[in-house]
Amino acid sequence: MMTKPMVDDLLEGLLIALENEIIPFISSPKAQSTGLMMQSIIQEIRQILPVFDTHIAIEHNQMTQVLRDMSATLDGVTGAEADRIRDRAKSLGTRADVLVPADQIPIRESHRELGFALQDNMTDLDVLQRAGETKADAALQILRTHLMPRLVHDVETLTVGAGVAGRG
Predict the structure, then answer these.
(1) What pTM was estimated for this model as a whole?
(2) Which among 74, 54, 51, 101 has a CA at the least distance from the CA of 62?
(3) Distance of alpha carbon 148 from alpha carbon 153, whole angstroms
(4) Cα–Cα 20 to 30 A to 105, which of 31, 47, 97, 162?
């Protein structure tokens, strides 16, 4: 209940659905080819997602350094072009390095573990409430206060058009 599939899990499910439920029933060779290309693109996305943010951060830091190095190499060179290169190094090359994102696997595993802990707490709070423990009501309110914004965020994120994707 409190866990979410990872993006890779969702994309894998989409690949399986295309392979087993859609492509076999397409009679048009052109449409079948399009389906296979869609599978290929989805697989590419699966492969790049785990490293995309890391690559962007590393490349950002490298590009600012390249701008500074190019400007330094052109020290003493005159002309509008050299001036523009130095200006770019001053305006963009001086940006601070960005942090490389943390490894998401331990964070996701911890999130999953915490989600199960909240789920187990909900079950235990139910038992305490049924036993008449009024403090369990307050503890449940803390949990609800945490869950409602998450629920709203999920609904906002998953809503497609006039409703939730796959519902109708």
Answers:
(1) 0.61
(2) 54
(3) 9
(4) 97
